[in-house]
Design brief:
The chain is built from 15 helices and no strands. The protein has about 325 residues and is mainly alpha-helical. Helix 5 runs antiparallel to helix 12. The protein is globular, with a radius of gyration of 20 Å.
């Protein structure tokens, strides 16, 4: 548990760094003074209205996607499983973009509802194919997820081409994983649902450990595999749709965070990995956004694009490392 506590301390440190980095630099001392004397500093407005919602949105999205990736890699018995590769993020994006296109008011309600609906439809497709054990055991479910993602992406591209020129840039940036908008204010809903999901995950950590040993073994040990799998895939669907509602498409967090946590902990026991993977996911997304704001104060660089630049080399390292260990 010491390593998990260290990850928590790192998250707190990066939260303070995120609050201080930006076009208007705020030192740690200014940060503390603005917290205790809110009316004595102009920094208080920047912190409360702009940076705090953005930072907490980054944390909530990282926590949700890291948690979701761990669950999917266990439930589907595939190290490449995550909301992005299964097409869940693509379905949520399509639903959200459709809500934006039709402009149904109020947008603060219809956009997340559209994302949830799109993600649910993509999840239903995945669940339908999961009934075929041949596809599942042959790891073809990942290929099906990629096809779902490409299909949704094609529709999203078509919709963007029909938007007004002033809306195209906003839509493209949002698809690339952008925070720093009014949608950051939705982070409390995602954070609360994550905490509830984490409670359920820890409550069922023994069942998840059994599933990790194999479906037949889990059934023989008394786990209702179908019910557990359905419960947590639906939870992943809800977390993914809300994350997409805030920041659009964010890849690699749910894929890389579990592998990093497995390496740090040296185990896949879920009472540890369900705590560590979300914290790693939060660290990764915070790091990407801090780098994005450090590179340029004048131009907004989408955090999701930098997340891919950070995540791809990390994932390649762990894949190569795993192949070398397999031949030793």
């Amino acid at each position: 548990m010491k390593k998990i506590f260290l990850l928590l301390l790192l998250n707190i440190t990066f939260i303070f760094i995120s609050l201080s980095v930006g076009a208007a630099h705020i030192s740690i001392s200014d940060l503390w003074s603005s917290l205790f004397n809110p009316h004595s500093s102009d920094s208080f407005f920047i912190l409360t209205e702009l940076r705090f919602p953005r930072t907490m949105a980054l944390v909530s999205i990282g926590l949700a996607l890291g948690f979701s990736g761990t669950l999917l890699q266990t439930l589907l018995d595939n190290p490449l499983s995550e909301p992005y590769t299964l097409g869940l993020s693509g379905g949520a994006t399509l639903g959200a973009v459709l809500a934006l296109m039709f402009g149904i008011k109020p947008i603060w309600l219809t956009l997340p509802m559209g994302a949830v609906l799109g993600c649910v439809l993509a999840t239903l497709l995945v669940l339908y194919f999961l009934k075929n054990k041949i596809l599942w055991k042959a790891n073809s479910i990942i290929l099906i997820g990629v096809m779902i993602s490409l299909f949704c992406g094609s529709f999203v591209t078509l919709i963007i081409s029909l938007l007004e020129p002033t809306q195209v840039q906003l839509a493209v940036y949002w698809m690339m994983g952008q925070v720093g908008s009014e949608k950051d204010l939705w982070w409390p809903a995602l954070f609360v649902i994550f905490v509830f999901s984490l409670f359920l995950g820890l409550r069922h950590h023994v069942d998840l450990d059994r599933i990790l040993l194999g479906e037949d073994t889990a059934i023989n040990l008394g786990t209702n595999v179908s019910s557990v799998r359905l419960l947590f895939i639906l939870i992943v669907c809800l977390l993914t749709s809300l994350a997409v509602s805030i920041a659009g498409l964010v890849g690699f967090v749910g894929l890389v965070a579990p592998h990093v946590s497995y390496h740090i902990l040296g185990t896949r026991r879920h009472y540890k990995t369900l705590l560590a993977s979300p914290l790693v996911g939060s660290l990764l997304f915070l790091s990407a956004d801090i780098l994005a704001r450090t590179f340029s104060y004048d131009i907004e660089i989408p955090s999701g694009s930098l997340m891919a630049l950070l995540g791809a080399p990390i994932l390649i390292y762990y894949l190569v490392r795993g192949l070398k260990n397999a031949h030793v």
